[in-house]
């Protein structure tokens, strides 16, 4: 199950390690004071997504459902508030996440089921490839966020 959760985090955040992006006081402070305007909403969305989708320990299907459903709301906000320079990339990323979420739902949010199928693994890989360099660059440069691998 831990291996499956790692793969799920990699699906959405990319194949990079996202260690160090947990619910710390530092990340909570960053989430409570996003920059103003649309950029602030986009950055706030990405902050939440980095935290929600970081690899974690084993989760039950109900915990998986809660986390991925919450993330879907942040994807919607990111899609609505993305800067023009990356809006097409963000729309593609969010759409891929929506497809993955539907697959999770059809699998009862059971990650063992998802990753026991060729289709589930392929969808996970395809989804991870929609997190483009321009999205990552904007998130790290303009938003000042970290995916935990910038060493």
* DSSP strand count: 0
Order of secondary-structure elements: HHHHHHHH
Q: How helical, in percent, are the residues?
A: 55-70%
Distance between the termini: 28 Å
The main sheet comes to: none
User: Mind telling me the C-alpha Rg?
Assistant: 14 Å
Structural class of the helices, strands and pairings?
mainly alpha
| Low-pLDDT residue intervals, each spanning 5 or more residues | 1-8, 10-37
Global morphology: globular
* Helix run count: 8
How is this structure best described in words?
By secondary structure, the protein is an all-alpha fold. Helices cover 67% and strands 0% of the residues. It has one domain (22-141). It has 8 helices and no strands.
Q: Summarize this, please?
A:
By secondary structure, this protein is an all-alpha fold. Helix content is 67%, strand content 0%. The protein has helices spanning 2-13, 25-32, 37-52, 61-81, 87-106, 111-114, 118-128, 133-141.
List key phrases describing it.
single chain, 151 residues, 8 helices, globular, 67% helix, mainly alpha
Draw up the topology in text.
Elements: H1 2-13, H2 25-32, H3 37-52, H4 61-81, H5 87-106, H6 111-114, H7 118-128, H8 133-141
């Amino acid at each position: 199950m831990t291996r499956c959760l790692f793969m799920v985090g990699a699906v959405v955040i990319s194949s990079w390690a996202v260690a160090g992006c947990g619910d710390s006081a530092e990340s909570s402070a960053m989430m409570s004071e996003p920059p103003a305007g649309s950029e602030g909403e986009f950055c706030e969305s990405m902050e939440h997504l980095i935290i929600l989708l970081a690899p974690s320990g084993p989760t039950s299907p109900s915990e998986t459902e809660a986390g991925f459903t919450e993330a879907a709301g942040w994807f919607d906000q990111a899609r609505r508030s993305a800067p023009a320079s990356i809006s097409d990339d963000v729309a593609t990323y969010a759409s891929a996440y929506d497809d993955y979420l539907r697959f999770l739902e059809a699998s009862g949010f059971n990650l063992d089921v998802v990753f026991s199928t060729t289709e589930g693994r392929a969808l996970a890989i395809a989804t991870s490839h929609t997190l483009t360099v321009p999205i990552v660059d904007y998130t790290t440069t303009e938003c000042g966020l970290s995916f935990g691998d910038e060493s």
